[in-house]
Amino acid sequence: MCAKICFSMYKPLKFILSGGSSLLVLLTLLWLLHEKAGLPAVAASTIAYSFSFIVGFLMQKFWTFSTGTERFGRHFLLYMTIALFNVGANAALMYVAIHLLSIWYLLSQVIVAGIIAMWSYLLYQRVFAASSAQEVKTPQN
User: Fold this and answer.
1) Which tens digit of pLDDT belongs to each residue from 46-83?
2) DSSP character at residue 26
C-alpha cells in the first residue's frame, strides 16, 4: 500500500523540484532585471519567466516525465503553447498582485508561480503522457 502511494507521489514531487529550479531561475533573473537593471517589475517578470521556461521544459521532459528525445519538437511546441498562455497569465496576475493588491513583487511572483504551476502540472502531464502512450501503442516495424 505504501509503495503504491509513494510511487504515485514521485512524479508530482519531481514536478515540484523541477518547478522549484525553474522558479529559482525566474526569481534570480527577476531580481537582477528589476533591482540591478532597473526594468519595471512586470516587464522584468515577463522576461525572467521566458528564460525560466527553457529550464522548466528541459527538466519536465527529460526528468519529471522521462520522455527522452522522442517527439522533442512536438512536445516543445505543445509546452510552448501552454507556456505562452502562462506568460500572459503571469503578467496579468503580477499586475493585479503588485498594482491592485499592493503585494511585494517577489512574493507576488511566488504566489503567481504557484497558481500557474497547479494548472500547468495537469496540462503538461497530459502532453507528455499522451505522447508516451501513443509511442507505446505504436507497433514497431
Assistant:
1) 899 888 888 988 998 888 888 877 788 888 899 889 98
2) H
